[in-house]
Write a structure and sequence with these properties.
Elements: H1 2-16, E1 19-21, E2 27-31, E3 47-50, E4 62-70, E5 75-84, E6 87-96, E7 106-108, E8 113-120, E9 127-128, E10 137-138, H2 139-167, E11 182-185, E12 190-193, E13 196-199, E14 204-207, E15 234-245
Parallel strand pairs: 3-8, 6-15
Antiparallel strand pairs: 1-7, 2-4, 4-5, 5-15, 6-8, 9-10, 11-14, 12-13
């Protein structure tokens, strides 16, 4: 009776769980927070991060791994994900549950997961804030925000001053005092009369005046360019590694 039950159980288990040679798996799409399928052992996370940079703001949410061949012992994988520019992939390893035993080349379908390491890049900067990675404030982001605010404030000031100057009436000319009179000496007049020659008096003429011109004001302009970054704060990154049957 018991051998029959054991046989039926094995047949049912084989029907519910499929096996596949690991070398025949072309690609894996693994999602953070999801668990793998399990039969002989317990389920494991599809994505498991190791190292000191496993924070919520640095770990990828989806990783796709592709079979790039075998080195004669195990399957080799290339895994791609969108990562922050602050980190890169280190050591990676794809593990799948052996269908009958650990090390079995036939693995349980849906049981594969990725264990990966994150390493700092040259662009990495220290974070500050609490221990929770999701609450940390990136220094580079703060500097960028402050820089943008300063540039915007400067542009607003320039435009405001230009508008005020363009709409104000032309300034009145400065007051001028009347120029002092100019004394023009007239040559003496020689008068001839019956009594003989004589001199006439000097004649004096007064002249004066002033003139002034109005200065004109011209306005200048400035143009602002906006820089853009195509990469943003993240980019596609790749990691390479082997596999094992657990």
């Amino acid at each position: 009776m018991f051998p029959i039950l054991a046989f039926l159980f094995s047949v049912t288990s084989a029907t519910l769980h499929e096996s596949i040679p690991m070398i025949d798996i072309d690609a894996l799409t693994l999602v953070a927070g999801r668990m793998t399928a399990a039969r002989r052992s317990g389920a494991v996370p599809q994505l498991e991060c190791t190292g000191s940079y496993c924070t919520n703001d640095l770990m990828p949410t989806v990783v796709q791994c592709r079979n790039v061949g075998s080195d004669g012992k195990e399957v080799q994988w290339r895994c791609d994900a969108e990562l922050s520019t602050q980190v890169k992939f280190g050591r990676i390893e794809v593990s799948c549950e052996g269908f009958e035993f650990a090390g079995d080349r036939n693995v349980l379908v849906g049981s594969c997961g990725l264990q990966y390491e994150l390493l700092a890049t040259a662009n990495h900067q220290r974070y500050r804030g609490g221990d929770n990675g999701g609450d940390r404030v990136h220094i580079g982001e703060v500097i960028a925000i402050v820089t943008v605010l300063v540039l915007v404030g400067f542009a607003v000031c320039v435009v405001t001053l230009y508008c005020l100057h363009a709409t104000s009436p032309n300034p009145s000319p400065p007051p001028y005092s009347q120029a002092p009179p100019v004394v023009v000496a007239q040559p003496p007049t020689i008068i001839y009369s019956n009594s003989g020659w004589g001199w006439g008096g000097w004649g004096w003429g007064w002249g004066g005046g002033s003139s002034w011109g109005r200065s004109s004001w011209g306005g200048g302009g400035s143009s602002w360019g906006r820089s853009s970054s195509s990469g943003g704060w993240s980019r596609m990154a790749s990691g390479f590694g082997g596999s094992r049957s657990r």
